[in-house]
């Protein structure tokens, strides 16, 4: 059996005929491996370049400074208004009280996997339609100690007992994001909330800084020590959540040439950190006026909480006696065998 090291130097030519034949065979194999490896690297690089040319998620904002200069100033002192609900006189069975307007518009069916539908159309449809979305501001550390801090649009809390969170890493040209690589290597992270006063610094961490440049330095945000994981907390955040990875799902069947793999990461909280003065006495409820959360919308747009309203959950047994409509539904249910 011929054992070959593809990275070894070419052998000096031996003297005997048999040895020379073996020499030529080994060198041909070595050259073929090197050629095929080089060709594969070139093809992979070509795929990445093609993917980058088709990747249009990063939206060009033009002369944004000029556009923003025409807009009114952000009012930091504006309180969050609490209003009545949109239809306080709503009754069971009323549906949407808009005189049928919402039913008069037809829907258009879309196949997200249609051959002629570009990926960017799915991206823009989803981020503009599923809004607002919380920003998952995640700090990680690589196995060799490199720190990373980055915001994520595909993030959400899943449960409270145990406290579970999910982060989505979408496919992108070239290698995976540093945050995903770090999480895979170490299984640890910190999730930090984003308030109005933080958004400029948080947005700055989304810049495509080269490997080795710390987003902590780029943003000017401050590190605070964690207890159960290596990554630091963001000291400016009202709430930070230390977490460890429970599961990772990679979508290998959907990976395209030149693009990194898409994945979902399930994270279980190991510690909560909440700022003093923002939470009630038993640390069970954060004051929204102190949190001042920012939501992500479509494109480069963000939203703030300007007003809220309340709608209590109701119990069937308490509502049936007060509603003729529910009483009829309840009676019909009782007759079903």
From TrEMBL:
Keyword Flavoprotein carried by entry: yes
InterPro entries from the UniProt entry: Flavin_Rdtase-like_dom (IPR002563), Split_barrel_FMN-bd (IPR012349)
Entry annotated with the keyword Flavoprotein: yes
Official protein name in the record: Flavin reductase like domain-containing protein
Domain Flavin reductase like: 128-285
Family: Belongs to the flavoredoxin family.
Gene Ontology MF terms: FMN binding
UniProt KW keywords: Flavoprotein, FMN
Ranges in a coiled coil: none
Cofactor: FMN
Organism: Penicillium daleae
């Amino acid at each position: 059996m011929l054992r070959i090291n593809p990275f070894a130097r070419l052998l000096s030519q031996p003297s005997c005929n048999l040895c020379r034949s073996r020499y030529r065979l080994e060198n041909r194999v070595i050259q073929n491996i090197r050629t095929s490896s080089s060709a594969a690297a070139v093809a992979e690089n070509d795929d990445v370049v093609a993917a980058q040319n088709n990747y249009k998620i990063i939206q060009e904002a033009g002369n944004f400074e000029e556009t923003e200069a025409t807009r009114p100033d952000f009012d930091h002192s504006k309180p969050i208004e609490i209003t009545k609900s949109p239809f306080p006189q709503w009754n069971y069975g009323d549906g949407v009280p808009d005189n049928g307007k919402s039913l008069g518009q037809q829907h258009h069916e879309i196949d997200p996997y249609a051959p002629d539908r570009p990926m960017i159309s799915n991206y823009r449809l989803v981020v503009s339609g599923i809004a607002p979305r919380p920003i998952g501001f995640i700090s990680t550390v690589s196995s060799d100690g490199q720190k990373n801090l980055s915001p994520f649009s595909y993030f959400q809390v899943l449960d409270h007992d145990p406290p579970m969170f999910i982060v989505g890493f979408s496919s992108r040209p070239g290698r995976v994001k540093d945050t995903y690589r770090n999480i895979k290597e170490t299984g640890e992270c910190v999730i930090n909330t984003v308030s109005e006063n933080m958004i400029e610094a948080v947005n700055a961490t989304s810049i495509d800084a080269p490997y080795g440049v710390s987003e902590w330095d780029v943003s000017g945000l401050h590190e605070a020590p964690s207890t159960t994981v290596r990554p630091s907390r963001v000291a400016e955040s009202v709430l930070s959540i230390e977490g460890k990875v429970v599961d990772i799902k990679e979508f290998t069947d959907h990976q395209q040439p030149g693009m990194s793999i898409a994945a979902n990461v399930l994270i279980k909280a190991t510690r909560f950190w909440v700022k003093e003065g923002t939470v009630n006495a038993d640390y069970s409820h954060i004051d929204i006026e102190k949190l001042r959360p920012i939501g992500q919308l479509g494109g480069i747009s963000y939203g703030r909480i300007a007003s809220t309203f309340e709608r209590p959950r109701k119990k069937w047994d308490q509502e049936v006696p007060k509603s003729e409509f529910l009483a009829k539904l309840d009676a019909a249910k009782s007759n079903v065998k």
